[in-house]
Amino acid sequence: MAIATIDPSTGDQLKTFDALTAEQLDAKIMASATAFRHWRDVPAERRAELFRGLAQRLDDEAEELGRIATREVGKTFGSAVAEVHKCAKGCRYYADNAQAMLADVPHEVEGARVLTRYEPLGPVLAVMPWNFPYWQVFRFAAPALMAGNTGLLKHASNVPQCALAIEDVFLRAGFPENVFQTLLIGSSEIEKVISDDRVRAVTLTGSEAAGRAVAAAAGKQIKTSVLELGGSDPFVVLPSADLDTAVRNAVTSRTLNNGQSCINAKRFIVHTDVADEFTRRLGEAMAALTVGDPMDENTDVGPLSSGDAVKTLDQQVRDTVAAGATLVTGGEPGSGPGFYYPPTVLADIPDGSPAHREELFGPVASVWRAQDLDDAIRIANDSPFGLGGSVWTTDEAEQERLVREIETGMIYVNRFTESTPEVPFGGAKNSGYGRELAGFGPRTFVNAKTVWIEGG
Question: Where does the Aldehyde dehydrogenase domain start and stop, copy by copy (predicted)?
Fold first, then answer.
């Protein structure tokens, strides 16, 4: 795939970039390893000071950075600006909390002083996706660099300007050179970077296929890896739920980032007593959304990231309908310029259809009818994915069963799934392994060293 900016709202190619040569890539990895030897010894208070300055720059430049993201991936301008502010929040959170999270942990052993000390590993490769081009990166970088590691970013090839802007803002915030670097390389180079002895760990957010490849490469080299992969999150609605609230949140969650988020609600599992009413309201609300120019403040849903994304989603919808699903609304790609797909609702999802087994990465909601609570849990777990999920009920006994029995890394009650620095983030099953954010963030890419001082 070419490293290029293509405006999804028009389909126009705006700018292209040359990939690093083998010599340039080697030099960048060496620079990262060299920078690590100095960065690891920078006092935590100084690292925190730099991250607070970086947070202020992100807040000050949010609109400029947001425009870049909107041009490269088509996300609405308002959501792009909000994403940059979220990155600033993450920087401040780890500036304020990482030092305590990484403090020595004492252990009670008679006659000795014993502790666990967290020491950084070295250069960490981050393989990041295009859909949240800033947040995905800072979600890794803030805790990993506060722990004393250095960062190497292999960003998606359709967001080179976002990738370069991130490196630039680190430098302008006063971070030492090469502590954080962007690598403009293709996916074929990832295994080579993982195999390099100077690179000590890897984190990936992306597809299941990409996760398998990265995990295999990291395992071969016996290196730490974290994977955040796809999701097909259940959104369970039971009769006690407030339908107005449930429908409103269903629409917001399903169309977040133009429907292109791993933690979008995708499978709406509704008790039969309220299924008809919920489906009708959901269809009406989705049909009422405004699709258009992502820079227009009145736009609810912008374009998908690429023409291929539209083709894939359209084929999945068509195949699901052909298998017997009901098309409630939408289902026809835009005919003009740009990569647009309308908000769509499918119901009566057949077993084995794409909507049943695959992740639909776009503004398409799939509705299942559950006969009772047991059936709702069965349907929720009938997926290879297990990233997040949300349940909508005011019955405490139902809440407890759903929380206990739905197989996901995250479950939200009467709130749709989201990520925030204070809360651990990650999945189960084919949605990956490892955790990011909260205290897991700084402790992921460290050596938890046992220190035993006899007679101490």
Answer: 3-451
Tokens of 455: 């007679």
Statement to judge: residues 196 and 312 lie in one domain: no
319 shares its domain with 441: no
325-331, Cβ contacts within 8 angstroms, sequence gap of 24 or more? 325/349, 325/350, 325/353, 325/355, 325/366, 328/279, 328/282, 328/283, 328/367, 329/283, 329/284, 329/286, 329/287, 330/286, 330/287, 330/363, 330/364
Q: How many helices (H) and strands (E) does the chain have?
A: 15, 20
Is 228 designated active site?
A: yes
The DSSP code for 293 is -
Q: What is the CATH number of the domain that holds 286?
A: 3.40.309.10
For 222: left if phi > 0, alpha if psi spans -120 to 50, otherwise beta; the answer is: left
Q: Rounded to the nearest 5 degrees, what angle is found at the Cα of 161, between the Cα atoms of 159 and 166?
A: 100
Number of domains in the chain: 2
3-state secondary structure of 86: helix
Residue 429's region, left for phi above 0, alpha for psi from -120 to 50, else beta, is: left
Q: Is residue 425 situated within a structural domain?
A: no
pLDDT digits (tens, 9 = 90+) for 42-101: 999 999 999 999 999 999 999 999 999 999 999 999 999 999 999 999 999 999 999 999
List the catalytic residue out of 83, 262, 358, 359.
Answer: 262
For tokens 């920087």, the residue is 91
Is the same domain home to 316 and 416? yes
How far apart are alpha carbons 248 and 419 in whole angstroms? 19
Residue 292, CB half-sphere, CA atoms under 13 Å: how many? Answer: 9
Is the alpha carbon torsion for 99, 89, 418, 302 positive or negative?
A: negative
What is the model's pTM? 0.97
Position 273 confidence tier, pLDDT thresholds 50, 70, 90 = very high
Of the candidates 83, 167, 228, 359, the residue annotated as catalytic is: 228
At 1 the pLDDT is 65
CA distance 139 to 93: 11
Which domain range does residue 176 map to?
A: 4-229+431-454
The phi, psi pair for 348, rounded to 5°, reads 55, 55
Helix (H) or strand (E) holding 128: none
pLDDT value, residue 2: 87
Q: How far apart are the first and last CA of the chain?
A: 58
Looking at the fold, whether 179 and 205 belong to one and the same domain comes out as: yes
Query: CA 93 to CA 143: how far, in whole Å?
Result: 9
In the annotation, is 262 catalytic? yes
